[in-house]
Design a protein that fits this description.
The chain is built from 19 helices and 31 strands. It is of the alpha/beta class. It is globular and about 75 Å long.
Length: 620
């Protein structure tokens, strides 16, 4: 075990004040905080800062204005553009002037419903500069879902684009925005539309063309960076709620900036001038933390990618982008690697292109099955680190801290608690379970800097996260610590199924199925059963070139029986063309559950390919 990691984690728990006070020195404060933590006021009370200043202005002032800040790589439009820190400063200031012309100021909300283009990043940082609270909604979300977020956030302005490009599809955004505005009770003051050549939109009277508004405000004064209290909101990011209403996770300026600065240096090993690429979307928390804010706070070069892991144009896209921009650390989702492997099982593109200057690959977004990690490590020759976190946390809670000299990793585990986080595996009685036994994954209060401290307009909803186990945040995930201290996150707590009195982990079964020869990706869910209460059912996507569905089905059933025994009771494995996933790569297991149980189901607004559920229903 790395001594540096051990010392850092122990200090963060035993001397929280000293640890985070030193970490806060990585941030330029307007008014230094009085202390690291106060139970009532949260992290870095009394401190004031501006997050956009820490992302851009201070690097320009330090003489690094010519360094590349943002590298936009869009294989779907055959475009590569690079923005230096000075150019990024100019663009952000111009968008801030546009928003100021529309009377946006400190505390106002701005909805950003845009694709993966530079203007989206400019908009987020411009809001941060003004002290406005942005809420990014993934471009292409259904109108009703957008309307819910509009009503909850009550924005003064909505920023959008005429279209988004999803692989081979071009998606018109403007009609969806128009429909959402009709459905929403809240009336948005102004709409600004970034016109894209692929599919321009018709604007109604009173709606603003982005570039025309930019030109009209070219001589307006540059708005100064607003002085924000540490606990002032930076953004609202909505995540799915159990009631059908989205939960607005609130991210505060101070703790967020300190946590991301620490993580860039100590988890990812990225400093000023280093190219870093998180292959995510700014509509998700990974995009907020590690496309926009984290790399720029660190003074790094952040890659903004508009494309897919396959089909834009082929499974070599990732490796080309890594090589082209000299990426030092790469971060993506396991599902993206599985998609690459499915199309290129022998890794021919990877072998031909290579990984350039990349030193390490990080995976997150869902559990990384050991087989996928093994394939990627074998063919890339790089350490592959799975790590775990949530929208609520804002940055990793479990990881191997690469930059602390810790390369210990175990396939199937997300690693070790990150400094600042104290984890426990709790039973239904709220007491820690014996080592190796599964239970609810919980984190002791207070959560580390950067984690949420409330939900927008919903303090009662926030409090529920701490109600089951007083003093602990209930993550909603199930897992266990093994005898070496590795934390294994096996899936959501409702993925522990009871089969004829036996508690079984569908995550463990997935691990076995995924390792079966011929399986590209899979999901195992608990289906209702009149005799046993529940039974496990697998959904399997075959690798390219595997055409014998019956043989693959038999191999999957045999593998689970061999490793878990007959008690696992897995007798059904549907071979399907694809799995229903969100655009961030998470498998929609609840949807699979409804389909296999014969319940009514609808296509969720977060789904990547709306045709997949019907194809699965037809297959079963």
């Amino acid at each position: 075990m790395s001594e540096a990691y051990q010392a850092a984690w122990r200090e963060s728990i035993e001397d929280r004040e000293g640890f985070w006070t030193r970490a806060a020195e990585a941030i330029d404060w307007i008014m230094p905080p009085e202390k690291a933590y106060d139970e009532r006021r949260g992290w870095f009370p009394g401190g004031t800062l501006n997050t956009a200043y820490n992302c851009i202005d201070r690097h320009v002032a330090a003489g690094r204005g010519d360094q590349v800040a943002l590298a936009y790589d869009s294989p779907v439009t055959d475009t590569v553009r690079r923005f230096s820190y000075s150019q990024l400063h100019e663009e952000v200031c111009r968008v801030a002037a546009m928003l100021a012309r529309l009377d946006v100021g400190k505390g106002d909300r701005v909805i950003v419903y845009m694709p993966m283009i530079p203007e989206t990043v400019f908009a987020m940082l411009a809001c941060a500069r003004l002290g406005a609270i942005h809420s990014v909604v993934f471009g292409g979300f259904a109108p009703l879902e957008l309307a819910k977020r509009i009503d909850d956030a009550a924005p003064k302005v909505l920023l959008t684009a005429s279209c988004g490009i999803e692989g081979a599809r071009t998606i018109a955004y403007k009609p969806m925005v128009d429909e959402a505005l009709k459905l929403a009770a809240h009336k948005v003051g102004d709409m600004v539309v970034m016109q894209r050549d692929r599919l321009p939109a018709a604007l109604a009277p009173g709606e603003h063309d982005w570039m025309e508004l930019r030109a009209a405000t070219a001589s307006d004064p540059i708005p100064p960076c607003a002085e924000m209290a540490s606990d002032d909101p930076l953004y609202i990011l909505y995540t799915s709620g159990t009631t059908g209403m989205p939960k607005g996770v609130v991210r505060e300026n101070g703790g967020h900036a300190v946590a991301l600065a620490w993580s860039m240096a100590n988890i990812y090993g990225i400093g000023a001038g280093d190219p870093f690429w998180a292959a995510s979307d700014v509509g998700w928390v990974v995009g907020h933390s590690y496309i926009v804010y984290g790399p720029l706070i660190a003074g790094a070069t952040s890659v903004l990618f508009e494309g897919k892991p396959v089909g834009t144009p082929d499974p070599g896209t990732f490796w080309r982008v890594i090589d082209r921009h000299g990426v030092k650390s790469f971060f993506t989702a396991p599902t993206a690697i599985r998609a690459v492997r499915k199309e290129d099982p022998e890794a021919k593109f990877l072998k031909e292109i290579g990984t350039g200057d990349c030193r390490v690959i990080f995976l997150a977004g869902e559990r990384a099955d050991p087989d996928t990690i093994a394939w990627l490590e074998q063919h890339s020759g790089l350490p592959v680190i799975d790590h775990w976190w949530q929208t609520e946390l804002g940055w990793p809670g479990v990881a191997t801290c690469f930059a602390l000299g810790d390369l210990r990793r175990k396939r199937g585990s997300a690693g070790f608690p990150v400094p600042g986080y104290e984890f426990a595996i709790l039973g239904e009685d709220g007491q820690p379970v014996p080592q190796g036994q599964s239970g609810a994954v919980a984190i002791r209060e207070p959560l580390a800097p950067g984690a949420f401290r409330t939900l927008w307009n919903n303090p009662a909803g926030f409090a529920k996260n701490f109600a089951t186990f007083p003093g602990w945040y209930e993550t909603g995930d199930a897992g266990h610590f093994d005898d070496e201290g590795f934390l294994n996150i096996m899936g959501r707590t409702d993925d522990i199924i009871n089969v004829a009195g036996h508690r079984l982990s569908t995550g463990q079964m997935e691990q076995i199925v995924a390792a079966t020869d011929g399986v590209a990706e899979c999901a195992v869910i608990g289906a209702d059963d009149a005799i046993k209460g529940m039974i496990p059912v697998a959904f399997v996507v075959a690798r390219a070139g595997v055409n014998d569905a019956a043989a693959l089905h038999a191999a999957v059933i045999a593998a689970v029986r061999r490793e878990l025994g007959a008690v696992a009771a897995l007798k059904t494995a549907y071979i399907v063309p694809g799995l229903p996933k969100t655009r961030s790569g998470k498998i929609l297991r609840n949807l699979l559950r409804k389909i296999v149980n014969g319940e009514d189901w609808t296509i969720p607004p977060t789904i990547e390919d709306p045709a997949v559920p019907a194809a699965i229903a037809a297959a079963i």
